[in-house]
Known about the structure:
Two copies of one chain form a homodimer. Chain A is an alpha/beta fold.
Amino acid sequence: MGNPSKYKIAIVGSGRLARQLANAFFSAGIVVSQIYARNSGMAQRIANQIGAQAVNDIHAIKTDTTCCVLAVSDDAIAAVSEALPSIEGLVVHTSGFRGFQEIHSKHAHRGVFYPLQTFTHGRDADFHSIPFFVEAEHDADQSFLLELGNKLSDKVMVSRLFERQRLHLAAVFVSNFTNALYVIGKDLLEAENLDFSLLHPLILETASKAIALNPHEGQTGPARRNDAGTIREHVKMLYKNQEAAEVYKLFTSIIQNKYKNQKDE
Amino acid sequence: MGNPSKYKIAIVGSGRLARQLANAFFSAGIVVSQIYARNSGMAQRIANQIGAQAVNDIHAIKTDTTCCVLAVSDDAIAAVSEALPSIEGLVVHTSGFRGFQEIHSKHAHRGVFYPLQTFTHGRDADFHSIPFFVEAEHDADQSFLLELGNKLSDKVMVSRLFERQRLHLAAVFVSNFTNALYVIGKDLLEAENLDFSLLHPLILETASKAIALNPHEGQTGPARRNDAGTIREHVKMLYKNQEAAEVYKLFTSIIQNKYKNQKDE
């Protein structure tokens, strides 16, 4: 695949992932030569940080780009890839949910470069620990994506679409929905002028123990103990908060159902 | 309150909390003199670790104990405290959900000593970071509990029952229900022979960013973006897993509802 310092990467997009990927490539010594985004101010800001060229016309992306990374929303992949000039190198998207076929077929080398992580403004992701799932239409391109990924991360794997979709779905549960539970917890405390920070150690320990042990074994709480009295009181406390009450009842029934034949200590 | 090295603590219980509290007192240089549990083998094992006396008759708990800590289930507090001989010092329970009144009134000094954390077999909690919420019938006892707590933790507060109940309820959401989401994530991956460890970085980052930032701002995902196509496909993928599908639909509607008037980037 040649010398990584000679790669010419183009990034399309200026969202959270585009920005962090640009910085991660830069830190890994890989040249990001061009950045295009509809929001040209954003593209310019990212480009300035890493010495890239910001382009405000998608046709200005160079056809001899080694790898053009589309860090755009799933629904934009088709249109954006069609608007690009035909790229001689690879064109990849970063979605966990779409196949490389989503990229317009005018590009001869299509692929997927999917990092499984949640990216947030103002918070630098540690790319080394992020699993990357790659796939390409052609084997040589797949090898290239593995190499490229390995510059950023310690965990890069070839995967099929159905696997990435499964990972993406599981990620929605353990990240997006978990965060929604944190929001409920915060709102419940703040309604009584209690500070969310009181829950911080519990949140971290719950995550850490699921990783160190096994979440099946780490299940605790009133539902796990089948403590009907506490469950009833909890539901009463939620009478003003219908959404939280629904969440409470659903999880309680799921947990009770799962452990009904096992005694907690 | 006198010299902590002269305290005589008794612990009733041999579950996860009893065990970890016993060790935490020991590490803090506070003498745990007696441990009682129905399961006398368990009590003996804990006692051996910290040089305490295991007793298999609750009447053998000494009446001149400085503080008798009931680390038992909520429903056992009343009966266990009644079975104890009348203690001259304090009798406290460790429940987040019951008042000190739950302790039998034959004890003149009743209180609550509630650590907000999830305790797991085979995993030592870091007591310094655990918030303790204390309350006692008498002011002097409350001061004693603050002092005692401060030997174990950097964060000890006097609190009212309604505050502890609120914390306890919020803890169920951010810990017990979060863990149930981890279980769903794990099961979804393992059904396709994918390893749960692929989600570890995401789980940790989701917890860390809720703490570093604000979970309201950290909400991401298809529901947050109102990405109807992906949501529809996700629900289809869950057709064999009714419980997970219900969780998916409920959270999606809660998140969509909350952010319907705000655009994600």
